[in-house]
């Protein structure tokens, strides 16, 4: 009665417990490329949104540290994302000047 519903429990989830590949390398490479794409597209469309996304993706792809050697796409994503965000903030600040509005 205690074994009810537990037949062949070892063969059911045999591949779910262990991983045979290293997960950090493909994930960080993918995040770096996504960050780089967001940074480049952010110069043309939605810079206020895509700039910070590029910075976050690049930072996570770099392993959240500045130490050690890093691949080029995450570093470029962080720098271009920061420039993109800064330009978007300047553009928004200049768009809300005293000359806009009804009066």
Relevant terms:
mainly alpha; elongated; 103 residues; 0% strand
Describe the sheet with the most strands: none
- What is the structural class? mainly alpha
Can you give the mean pLDDT? 79
Q: What would the principal axes of the Cα set say about the shape?
A: elongated
Low-pLDDT sequence parts:
none
| Strand residue percentage | under 5%
Q: What order do the helices and strands follow?
A: HHHH
* Total helical segments: 4
Roughly how many Å is the radius of gyration? 23 Å
What's the N-to-C terminus distance? 83 Å
What percent of residues adopt helix (DSSP H or I)?
A: 55-70%
Number of DSSP strand runs: 0
Polypeptide structure, described:
By secondary structure, the protein is mainly α. It is 60% helix and 0% strand. The chain has four helices and no strands. The longest helix has 24 residues, at 72-95.
Summarize the structure.
The protein is mainly alpha-helical.
Furnish the topology, listing elements before pairings.
Elements: H1 9-12, H2 24-42, H3 47-61, H4 72-95
